[in-house]
Each structure stands twice: as structure tokens, then as C-alpha cells.
Design goal:
The protein is α/β, with parallel strands linked by helices. It folds into two domains: 32-419, Alpha/Beta hydrolase fold, catalytic domain (Rossmann fold); 431-508, Immunoglobulin-like, CATH 2.60.40.3080. It is 27% helix and 26% strand. The chain has twelve helices and 20 strands. The protein has an eight-stranded mixed beta sheet, with helices on both faces. Strand 1 (32-45) and strand 2 form a beta hairpin. It starts with 31 loop residues before the first strand and ends with a strand.
């Protein structure tokens, strides 16, 4: 999906910020409201073999007591190996998973609206035919992508029907965990029939391509055979501003092209199911290989090579989580690929942010006719790739998972904030703006920039044509600027704070 990135800064003094400029960066609300099982469309499921029309439902999270009505939307896609929870031999796989609910609640407490969607699942992971396994999984990814686009159209349509969720029409992000990460990556990159009809996706047993949009519907989930695909909310855009991917992978690196939306990824480098770079997907609980894919490491590397993540480069992020990812605190970690957070410890290989309640798993399995031994086997399958969750016990495992969710939130949120262009500037009549001083100005050689009310995190200096000529980290309430090497003339310095940014004009003599 192509998207033209907007310029990072506006030259001149920025005016009129939100009343609380930290909104969307830090938690501002103590609680959230959840509207469960909102029907956002209907489409044909192949879970039972015969296509059956089923409702598509979502849980919508909103900050309690919020009065804003133009809020960014996050469409959140849960994990689950493209099979229903417990049927997938795991203790996770639903929009009500503990980690999914926690992520959605935290985003909503920051002021976002979050739609946690259920999507169509179903494929044949234990088929003796590798061709069948590959075809059914790529079709499952394709259907989940269509459902995510249905959700985006539904939410945009709701704006025209009174905007009951109070969302913005042009500030939408897709994010997902595990298989939801696969969905988000496909959403951002897959748009041409030639991309899905590669040789690797040609079934040599049937002599047909594994995905045919003329049959299954197009990349937006429209058209195709009406017995296999139902049109939902045609006429509404599916454009988004960025995606975040937590432990997912891309069906093929050729899907990713220059000009597509920024991609933020978190991934265990030793993930046994979804490769970190390039490799083969395996089915949890079996030794069956499925398909070769490109994981977060390779995807983010390409996104940076293509310039798709440039919006996050200037000014650079300087927080501790970014510093760790960039290797500033731990040696070479992400090899300079902005937007990538690798998890390197072997015991954190797959989903260390996940946890579950034993009683809930036993009861959920019983409802499906799975005995207690089967329930504990599903939890054991999860422990196999996340052993410290089991070793630490229920409370310790949950706390460890929550610590990882802290990291996910702290890595994703500032990048989302910038990609959505939520930093509209600090109001000139605010205490922070009034507390900023530049002296002397005009500048002969050096000048001091000070802030009485907030910490200056970094700055970017632009020349009169709006070109970036210098930037640096600050992280204190004052610093001395040395104009050495710069020609005389008018410049604009954008100062970045946790609360937002503002711009000051400098005259260099």
C-alpha cells in the first residue's frame, strides 16, 4: 500500500496544541469502556470445510469519560496460528487473550480508540501434503487481511452514521500479535495479483495458484465468488498510516515496496515458529513445515532501505527502549534498523508477553469437549517456547509478561504518535512556550536555549528552505548551541519535549 509521507515539521511557530499534549503518548485515563462483540461485517468461514456465512465481531475500547471525538483508531489483530483458541493446540488465540486485552486497554488509556477484531480462521496444519498446508495457510492469511480491511471500512462508515466511536477518518493504525502480525504485514504490503501469484504460491498438485482474487475476492475483501466472499461496506477507504507487528512475518519480501507505510516490529530472534529473518514456518505442536517467509528482522531492514521508516529518523528517538534496540546499551542489537526491537534471550523466543489463567483454560477447553489433560497439554505447548512463564508460576509469569508489554508499549507508542502526526505543537500561550528562552539572538557564535517548565529532549535545525542542517539530543533543561560551520541567515529550531514541540527563529550573524 503506497503512502506519501508528510513532512516532519512545519517551518514557523506552531500553534494551538491539544489541552494535554501528552495525550496519545502516556496514559491519561484511569479506566476504559469496552463494547463487546460489535458486528462489523459477515463473511464465509471454511473452518468446518463447507463455506458458511458468519458474523465478524470486534471489541471496541474507548477511554472512560473522554470528550474528544476525533481520536486515532487502532485495529488490533490477535494471535492464534489461524485456528480457534484451544483447537490450535495452544492456550491463546482469541481477542480476549490476556495480552491482547492488556495491550488494548493501555492504548485506550492513552486516548486511542482500539478495535480488537475476531477474524476468520481455519486451515489444514496436519495435512500430509505440504502443498495443502501451504495453500490453506496463505488463504487463511488472505482472509484475515480481508477481514481487517472490512473492519477499517466499517469504522470509516460509522463516521458517516454519527461517529459513535469518536474516531478520525485519517488516523488509523493496524497492529497484531503472532498470526495477527502476519495479517498486519499483509495489509500494509499486499495489493497486486502478481505479488500473491508467485511461483512459491503455485500448487504443483492442482496446477493452480493457491490464491486467486477472482475467486476469493480482491485484496480489500470485495468481489470474487459470492459463495466464498461477501462484500462488506464497499465505497469506503482502507488507507492506514502505519502498522506494528509483534512476532509476525511476511509471506514474501517482494510484497514490500518503497513508498509503503512505516513498519514497527518486535520479534524474538530465536522464535521457533516465525523466523526472525528468513526461514520456514512450523506448526506449533508438530514438526510439519509450512511455508518460507520473511520475519521482522528482514522486513524492517527492507523498510529502512526503501526509506519507508524515514519519518522516525529525524529527530531520532532517544528513550531507553530505543537505545537498547539500537545497541546503545547492549552492543549491536537491531543493526541500526529503526523500528525494530529484537528480543535476544533464548528463553524469550516466542511470545514472552503472553500469559493465561489456568482455570480459564481448563474451563474453555471443557466447553469444546477437551478434557483437563488436553487443557494442560495446550498450556505446556505454550511453555515450550516461553519456559519462564511456567517456571515463575502464575503471578510471576504474569508480572514478567506485563514487563514485556511495558516494552511493547514504550517502543510502539512514540512511533505511532509521530506516524499519525499527533504532535501538532505546544500552544504559544502555554507555560512551556513562555518558559523557553533563546539568548543572545541574533547569534554571533553561541547562544543558550533554556526551558523553565520542561525538559528539552532534542532539537532539529532547519535552514530558510526547510532543509534539516543539524539535529542533536539534549535531555536537559538548557543547552548551548554553537553555530560554527553555518552560514549567516535565518534558521528555525524545532525543540522537542515530552509534551510536544515548538519552533523558534534564530538569526545567525
Amino acid at each position: 500500500m503506497k503512502r506519501t509521507l508528510h513532512a516532519l515539521a512545519v517551518i514557523g511557530v506552531l500553534a494551538s496544541a491539544q489541552a494535554n499534549a501528552q495525550r496519545y503518548l502516556t496514559e491519561q485515563f484511569s479506566s476504559v469502556d469496552v463494547q463487546s462483540n460489535v458486528v462489523y461485517g459477515q463473511n464465509f468461514s471454511v473452518l468446518t470445510g463447507t463455506p458458511q456465512l458468519q458474523p465478524l465481531v470486534m471489541d471496541v475500547y474507548t477511554p472512560t469519560g473522554d470528550t474528544q471525538t476525533d481520536r486515532p483508531l487502532i485495529v488490533y489483530v490477535h494471535t492464534g496460528s489461524f485456528l480457534p483458541r484451544y483447537i490450535n493446540q495452544l492456550a491463546t488465540g482469541d481477542k480476549t487473550d490476556s495480552a491482547t486485552v492488556e495491550m488494548c486497554r493501555r492504548f485506550a488509556k492513552k486516548g486511542y480508540v482500539v478495535a480488537a477484531i475476531s477474524y476468520r480462521t481455519g486451515w489444514l496444519p496436519t495435512s500430509d501434503s505440504e502443498q495443502t498446508r501451504k495453500q490453506t495457510i496463505i488463504q487463511a492469511v488472505y482472509r484475515s487481511m480481508q477481514d481487517a480491511k472490512t473492519a477499517v471500512r466499517f469504522m470509516r462508515k460509522s463516521i458517516t452514521e454519527g461517529n459513535p466511536y469518536g474516531i478520525s477518518n485519517d488516523k488509523i493504525v493496524i497492529g497484531g500479535q503472532g498470526s495477527g502480525g502476519y495479517t498486519a504485514l499483509a495489509y500494509a504490503t499486499l495489493q497486486e495479483t502478481s505479488e500473491i501469484q508467485l511461483l512459491k504460491f503455485f500448487n504443483t498438485e492442482t496446477n493452480l495458484f493457491m490464491v486467486d482474487p477472482a475467486i476469493l475476492g480482491d485484496f480489500g475483501g470485495l468481489g470474487g465468488n459470492p459463495a466464498l466472499n461477501n462484500d462488506n461496506h464497499p465505497g469506503y477507504s482502507t488507507d492506514i498510516s502505519m502498522i506494528f507487528n509483534i512476532g509476525g512475518a511476511l509471506g514474501d519480501s517482494s510484497w514490500l515496496e518503497p513508498g509503503e507505510v512505516p513498519i514497527c516490529s518486535i520479534h524474538g530472534v530465536n522464535d521457533p515458529f516465525a523466523p526472525y529473518m528468513n526461514g520456514t514456518v512450523f506448526v506449533p505442536g508438530t514438526s510439519f513445515a509450512v511455508v518460507n517467509v520473511d520475519g521482522s528482522g528482514r522486513v524492517t531492514q527492507l523498510a529502512n532501505e526503501y526509506g519507508n521508516n524515514d519519518i522516525w529518523l529525524n529527530p531520532p528517538f532517544t528513550d531507553d527502549v530505543t537505545n537498547y534496540a539500537q545497541g546503545a546499551l547492549a552492543g549491536t542489537v537491531n543493526e541500526g534498523n529503526e523500528g525494530l526491537f529484537p528480543i535476544t534471550a533464548i528463553q524469550n523466543a516466542s511470545g514472552p508477553w503472553e500469559w493465561w489463567d489456568t482455570t480459564a483454560v481448563v474451563n474453555g477447553c471443557a466447553a469444546l469437549g477437551i478434557d483437563e489433560a488436553g487443557a494442560f497439554q495446550r498450556m505446556a505447548n505454550g511453555y515450550a517456547s516461553n519456559p519462564l512463564l511456567s517456571a515463575l508460576g502464575t503471578v510471576g509469569g504474569r508480572n514478567r509478561a506485563l514487563a514485556y508489554i511495558d516494552t511493547l508499549q514504550n517502543f510502539i507508542t512514540p512511533r505511532m504518535y509521530r506516524a499519525l502526526e499527533l504532535n501538532v505543537g505546544i500552544a504559544e500561550n502555554s507555560a512551556i512556550a513562555n518558559g523557553v528562552k533563546v539568548y543572545p539572538n541574533p547569534v554571533a557564535r553561541m547562544t543558550e536555549i533554556s526551558s523553565a517548565e520542561a525538559i528539552i529532549r532534542n532539537y532539529v535545525l532547519y535552514d530558510g528552505q526547510g532543509r534539516i542542517v543539524r539535529n542533536d539530543n539534549v535531555n536537559r533543561d538548557r543547552f548551548t548551541f554553537d553555530r560554527s560551520g553555518l552560514s549567516a541567515g535565518s534558521y528555525y529550531m524545532e525543540l522537542f519535549f515530552d509534551e510536544g514541540s515548538l519552533t523558534r527563529k534564530l538569526i545567525l550573524e
